[in-house]
Specification:
The chain has about 210 residues and is α/β, with parallel strands linked by helices. About 45% of the residues lie in helices and about 15% in strands.
Amino acid sequence: MTVTEELPISIVDSLDKRKYPTPEEYNYWKSRENRTFFIAYEVDEFYNLIELSKVIIQMNMEEREIKNPKPIFIFIHSYGGDIEQANYFCDLIQSSHIPIVTIGMGVAMSAGFLIFLAGKRRYAFEHCQMLVHQGSAAFQGSAAEIEEAQKNYKKQLEGMKSYILARTDIDEKTFNKNRNKDWYLSRDELVKYKVVDKIVTSFDEIN
């Protein structure tokens, strides 16, 4: 297999050889042009976030000398998934020189909720459902390995709690009260706890 064949986005040597780009090429470059991307999948072991991360890193490298770069918009429709992947992607969003705006559409739950909170500015459509919960974990291995895995998982949960409290106006008492259940945040709660900067009904309100 050649290097070109391994690339997810193929390189067009000449437009004379091929009149039209593939749908994948078109969508990729259109997203770059509009600075608009989507997390419309589960955050899982297939590492879909890695490909989006590469684009964000490339754009940051290209625009690191620009003082006030135009924002990147990430629309989120995700039921959640892997907390480790969500954590690294949240770090990436917050460390980005280019401001990254997150928009909740449909659902932003669990790991998807954490990613949403990382946005420089945060918007949600009227019927977007957001969920805070502790998730679940299964452990395998020797007794010592299971014990260490459980300790690490508890650290992750405490880290998640600290992150949510720091990025919202949710107080610790309210968080602890709801932490052991699936906490679906109502529209009023999204505004009250400053989870969102604004509930939007028009694209014109997103900036």
